[in-house]
Amino acid sequence: AELLLSGDQIRVGLAGNLAAYEFIDSNGNVVSGADVDYNGSPAGYTADPQENIVYVSAHDNQTLFDIGQYHHPLDTSMADRVRAQNLGVDITALAQGVSFFHAGVDMLRSKSLDRDSFNSGDWFNRLDFTFDSSTWGAGLPVAEKNESNWPIIGPLLSGLDAPDAADMQATFDHTKEILEIRTSSELFSLDTADDVQARMGFHNTGPSQVPGLIVMSIDDTVGDDLDPEADGMWVLF
């Protein structure tokens, strides 16, 4: 049930977090973005796609790579950790609205699980643009905001491998490719809520869906011809 709800929340986000956007939810009902629950608040809250700032990580809280280190099963391979990171980047890049990327997300940035690094210095905040080193395992993050989690953080930092240069390069290349796709077509940057409703659709919905697969289409056969090279886009997450 949690996986299906997460899928509906992501669909709303892909559609610009529009409060009025209608689609078929995991229960098979036609709902609006505002009808989908997000921790007691409506998942959809915008009136226009440009009000939607899409992100999966920011300067606050852990980096995307670090939150994955918290949540993935311990035996998850680095290749699958990289794939999970890339999926978060993809959802951010291909959603309607304004995509926001935390510095270093394209190189598996780590702050050694520090959730509030404003006063942690370069030892935790540094970025190595040569990909020669990762900040994963730099040390226990500062006590002020992290000490209560040290019993969890310590074993993770010492027990899980850091990404290597090849892992970081692969993520960088993937991020560059997905941004090239985003900017290749105006269909990924629709201007109005009406346009999103008229053009965007989700498939593999309802109670009989394959859980964990989001299928999104963007139609270019309605309204103005936004992409002379395509009649539409299909994206499978």
- Uncertain stretches of 5 or more adjacent residues: none
Largest sheet: 3 strands, antiparallel
Ends apart, CA distance between termini: 18 Å
DSSP helical segment count = 8
* Secondary-structure content class: alpha+beta
Proportion of residues in β-strands: 5-15%
Give the radius of gyration: 19 Å
Instruction: Give the averaged pLDDT, no decimals.
Output: 97
Write the H/E string, N to C.
HEEEEEHHEHHHHHEEE
Indicate the percent of residues in helices.
25-40%
Overall, the morphology is globular
Order of strands in the sheet with most strands: 7-8-9
Query: Based on DSSP secondary structure assignment, what is the total number of beta strands?
Result: 9
Keywords, separated by commas or semicolons:
globular; two-stranded antiparallel ribbon; alpha+beta; 8 helices
Written overview of the protein:
The protein is α+β, with helices and mostly antiparallel strands. 35% of the residues lie in helices and 12% in strands. It contains eight helices and nine strands. The protein has a three-stranded antiparallel sheet with strand order 7-8-9. Strands 1-2 form a two-stranded antiparallel sheet. A two-stranded antiparallel ribbon has the order 3-4. Strand 1 and strand 2 (30-32) form a beta hairpin. Helix 2 (64-71) packs across helix 3 (78-94) and helix 3 runs parallel beside helix 7 (165-183). The longest helix is centred in the last third of the chain and has 19 residues, at 165-183. The relative contact order is 0.16. The model has no long low-confidence stretch (mean pLDDT 97).
